Amino acid sequence: MLAGCSITYDIAGYFENSPDTFAGTVSVNMADSGRVAVANDKGDLTCEGTSKVIERPSGFSTIGARAVAEAKCNDGRTFKAEVIQDRDSGGSGQGLDDKGNVVKVFFDRSRQVAVSTAERERLRDLTQSRAAAPSTPVPAAVQPPPRAVAERLRELDKLRDDKLVTPEEYDQRRKAILNSL
User: Fold this and answer.
1) 82 belongs to a structural domain
2) Are 12 and 110 in contact (CB under 8 A)?
3) Is residue 137 a part of any domain in this protein?
4) Total domain count for the chain?
5) Tens digits of residue pLDDT in 68-119
6) Which CATH number belongs to the domain containing residue 112 in this structure?
7) Does the reported pTM lie above 0.90?
8) Residue 99 domain boundaries
9) At 77, is the secondary structure helix, strand, or coil?
């Protein structure tokens, strides 16, 4: 929705290792900066912060635009996510919270599309992580690290390679992931 000199999208997503999805809005003004505000269904988790367009495609299309959203939540966590607009009405992206957990976000001009996409992707991720779990217990002494940790480390490496986290953030988040073992 275009309001004044800004555009507002509905946004939905979820944090890895959290049972809830969240939803809200993200806006960007003509100066390529804006606000993000989300909450879970129960209202006990709220996050607010900034959004900033970091790359615009040439011409009049918004497809291919990239932006970064950074927010602080009322439970003390912070997160940073990069998104890309992959269609006229919206797009998706991901990032990390300060504990090294992946956060995935989906935005659209339709709240229903943003929320249903987030819920569908959350279920897909849960199904994949359960399917990857070993079917018979392995003794703790020889059990490999959980697949989720390996995935989180790969995600963190990609964020570092794409220069979306500083070396200090990378080291801090990597330690947090490894300490979760």
Assistant:
1) yes
2) no
3) no
4) 1
5) 999 999 999 999 999 999 998 999 999 999 989 999 999 999 999 999 999 9
6) 2.40.128.120
7) no
8) 2-122
9) coil
